[in-house]
Amino acid sequence: MDMLVVQGGCTLRGHVFVDGAKNAALPIMAASILLDGDIRIKRVPDLVDVQTMSLLLQSLGAEVTRSGDTLDIDTRDVACQHADYELVRRMRASVCVLGPLLARFGRASVSLPGGCNIGHRPIDLHLKGLAALGADLRIERGYVIGEASQLRGADIFLGGPGGSTVTGTCNVMAAACLAKGHTVIRAAACEPEVADLGRFLNGAGARISGLGTSTIEITGVEGLTSVTHTVVPDRIEAATFAIAAAATRGNISIHDVCPEHMASVIEALEDIGATIHVAADQLDISATGSLRSIELAALPFPEIPTDTQAQFMALMATVPGISVVTDRVFPDRFMHASELVRMGAQIRREGASVVIDGGRRLTGTSVMASDLRASAALVIAALAADGESQIRRIYHLDRGYARLEQKLNGLGASVIRRADGSAQAKRPHYLQGDSARSKGSQSQRD
Predict the structure, then answer these.
(1) Which pTM does this prediction carry?
(2) CATH dotted code for 2-19+233-439
(3) Does the annotation count 116 as an active-site position?
(4) In this predicted model, what pLDDT tens digit does every residue of 346-363 receive, in sequence order?
(5) How many Å from the N-terminal Cα to the C-terminal Cα in the chain?
(6) Looking at residues 30-51, what average pLDDT do you find?
(7) Where are the domains of the chain?
(8) Residue 177 burial class via C-beta count within 10 angstroms: exposed 0-12, middle 13-18, buried 19 and up
(9) Please, are residues 359 and 320 in contact by the beta-carbon 8 Å criterion?
(10) Do domains 2-19+233-439 and 22-230 have the same CATH topology?
(11) Sign of CA dihedral 103, 107, 112, 116
(12) What does the CA dihedral 327, 331, 335, 340 come to, rounded to 10 degrees?
């Protein structure tokens, strides 16, 4: 496996460019199963998760080719409706093929999904929504088996104890595009990535309204055709860089962003004491002054994303005073706390919250990532710490951040990817055959 070796004590300065959103690209790729035509998706990040979804589509019979940041997908010859465990177990977004397979072929066999271990994440709302559309569903030997001679529009409520379901909304909305009649999804997820999927489908001929609101309406159509679509910017990657700049008391410009998707993160960073200038597609963040402790809670959009909770925790460990970070979406998503403590952070868990006695000196050490965003939090803490840190199990990181070490090095950091022991991990595509590139710097998007 690979690990990252981070020399701490740096101050991030410079310019960095953000890729397209992983959490938009994956459900868009899954929904391509619905289309009968050529599909071109631009600004697709080169991530392990994207590679996994490409393999899954190819296992179903699709053709998937990449050129730069563009994917060309042809699903006209898809004939298989079985999404195998060996691929689906790698990431949760794989379950998003369930609705499209049912809508197009009337049958599907999809393994129950895997992904990061961040707490209990059932797919009961997916199944509830698809059943309301007329699918006959059962679970056998770890697979969801579904049949539907003709999906029909329905009035569906998708709210759950942690709020709306993002992937569930994507699954049901995609399936409803080919259902007969009118569908209303209530308590729909409002995340920008859900709206981006809807725009992709509308570009292919779907009839979806209410995107970005809690009530989405879909009028079914006979079929969907060729489309070219550009994925929205990755607000979580942008937030990660902004938080890293604050943790290192840096001054950076983040390009190719959508500021309205990041309003809650921007507000929280300003409350902490950072200065942020917002332009059309750029954020300038400066944290060279004194910072202060705060209380914040992760909630569904438009509030603080749960996918930034870990990064904020790392930041607050560097800020003097008592801070409280709560996660209302995944109340058990705190496995990174113990690793931050290993670096000298003072953190204690209280239910769905952690209390951070910040401003203590962080020191570099060996830590282990437990999930994707925990990996990013450990990188941020390592950048701010004294001395060298080794971050292990970074295969989590490669699922959601492309060229992260190169981008950070372009901002003045010292981050090197190395083999961890004798085991050789399968490296992300952009590193294969070119180990030296992990040491280079990059201050702009390829």
Answers:
(1) 0.92
(2) 3.65.10.10
(3) yes
(4) 999 999 999 999 999 999
(5) 26
(6) 96
(7) 2-19+233-439, 22-230
(8) buried
(9) yes
(10) yes
(11) negative
(12) 30
Residue 309 · residue 298 · CB < 8 Å:
yes
CA 48 distance to own-chain centroid: 12
**Structure-token pair, residue 263:** 């309003």
Q: What's the topology of domain 22-230? A: UDP-n-acetylglucosamine1-carboxyvinyl-transferase; Chain (3.65.10)
**pLDDT class for 133, splitting at 50, 70, 90?**
very high
Q: At what angle do helices 372-384 and 309-316 cross, to 10 degrees?
A: 20
Among candidate residues 96, 116, 177, 190, the one labeled active-site is 116
Please give the torsion angle defined by the CA atoms of residues 90, 95, 101 and 107, in that order, rounded to the nearest 10 degrees. Answer: 100
Q: Is 139 exposed, middle or buried (0-12, 13-18, 19+ CB in 10 A)?
A: exposed
Residue pLDDT, tens place only, 305-349: 999 999 999 999 999 999 999 999 988 889 999 999 999 999 999
Instruction: Categorize the per-residue pLDDT at 253 as very low, low, confident or very high, splitting at 50, 70 and 90.
Output: very high
